[in-house]
Amino acid sequence: MNRKRLLQRLLLAAVTAISSAVHAVGAPLCYYGVNLSGAEYGERSGVYGTNYTYPTEETISYFARKGMTIIRLPFRWERLQPRLGTRLDDDELQRLKDTVALVRKHKMSVLLDPHNFGYYDKDQIGKRPVTNAAFADFWARLSLEFANRDGVLFGLMNEPHDIPATDWLKAANAAIRGIRAVGARNLILVPGTAWSGAATWETDVVGGANGTVMLGVHDPLDFYAYEFHQYLDADSSGTHGTCEAAKAATDAIANVTKWLKTNGKRGFLGEFGASGNADCLEGLKTMLSTMSDNSDAWIGFSYWAAGEWWPANEPFNVQPRDRPERPQMRLLDQTVVRHAPVCLAVKPAGT
Q1: 3-335 in CATH: which number?
Q2: ∠ CA(257), CA(286), CA(158), 5° rounding?
C-alpha cells in the first residue's frame, strides 16, 4: 500500500473514531432542536402564504441564538411531488431549498420531514398506488437534491400508523435503498410504526413490535438512527395540556435507552412536548436528563413545536412572541450545551 493511500485510510479512521467518541457516555448530545411547523399545513392544493408557510429567518435566527443545533422541518409529500413517480415540483422544492439554506446560514442542521403519517393523500404506503417503489422513488429524487450536503439529515416519514411493522420495515428499507442508490451518504432517521411511540416500542401494536421487527433495518452504509416520539398527556397524543402520563413517558424514554444500548443502536427524539405546568415541566426535565446522560445511545432531540402560524394559545408552543418566554423554552435553553459537538451528518466516502 503506498504512503498516500495509507494516510487517507488513517485519516478516515480518525474521523470515524471522532464521530463515535462524541457518543461516549458523558459527552454532550449532537442535536438540540425544535420542530418549525407550517409547511405541512393544509391540503395538497393549499396556496403558499395563505394555507401553509415556511419558517422565516427571524424565527430561525432566534432558535440559533438560543443555542439550538437542529431544526426538524415538516412538509407535505404531495405538494413536493404532486404525482407519484414524477419529478418534484419546482416551486415547492425551491421553497424547501431556500429554508434549508437559511437554517444552514445560521449554522444549524436541518432534518427533512415528510409529515404524512405513512400516507400519500388517503393511500397508505405499501399499497397501490403508493407502493414501496413509489416511496423509494420519492426519496431518491429528494435525496439527490440534498445528497451529501453538510448538516442535512433525512427523516423517512413522520409517524407511520396502522401499518404492520413488518410491512413498514419493507417500505423503510426500500426508501433507504433509494437514498443510497443515488450516492447520498446523509444520516437517515428511521421511525417505527404505531406513531413511532417510545412507550409502545417493544409492544406488538400492529404486525409485530417495533423493537423486534425494526432491527431488520438494512443500510449498506450503516449510518442511521431510530426516531422516536413521546408525549406526556394521558393518551400520548400531544393534544392535551395536562400530563397524567408523565411517569409513563419518562419510563418509556428510559426503556428505549436500554433497548438502544442493548442493541448497539442510536436514537433521536423527533417529537416531544407538554404544557408549562409543574408536572409537565418535571417530566420534560427528566426526559431531557435521560438523553443527556446517555449520549452513547441518543444523538439528540427536537421539541414540538414552534412556527409563525403555530397558535398562540397552543400550550406546547415555544414560538417567540411579544411576551416572556414559555417555561418549556427556558428548560430547553438550560439543557443546551453551548459548545455541543459537531457530529457527522454525512458519512465520509470510503468508510
Answers
A1: 3.20.20.80
A2: 60
pTM of the shown model: 0.93
Beta carbons within 10 angstroms of residue 150's beta carbon: 11
Can you tell me the distance from the alpha carbon of 332 to that of 284, in angstroms, rounded to the nearest whole number? 9
Angle between helix axes 90-105 and 132-146 (nearest 10 degrees) is 50
Residue range 220-278, pLDDT digits in tens:
999 999 999 999 999 989 989 999 999 999 999 999 999 999 999 999 999 999 999 99
- Closest by alpha carbon to 274, among 307, 303, 301? 303
- Alpha-carbon distance of 336 to 334, in angstroms, equals 6
Under 8 Å CB-to-CB from 180, ≥6 apart: which residues? 219, 220, 221
- Give pLDDT, residue 2: 54
Residues annotated as part of the active site: 159, 271
Tell me: the pLDDT tens digits for 65-103? 999 999 999 999 999 999 999 999 999 999 999 999 999
Q: Where are the domains of the chain?
A: 3-335
243: Cβ contacts below 8 Å, ≥ 6 apart: 232, 233, 249, 274, 275, 277, 279, 280, 283
Regarding beta strands 188-191 and 31-36, do their DSSP bridges make them parallel or antiparallel, or are they unpaired?
A: unpaired
31: left (phi over 0), alpha (psi -120 to 50) or beta: beta
The cell numbers describing 159, all together, are: 409517524
- CA distances (Å), origin 162, targets 74, 114, 129: 21, 17, 17
The 3-state DSSP class for residue 222 equals: coil
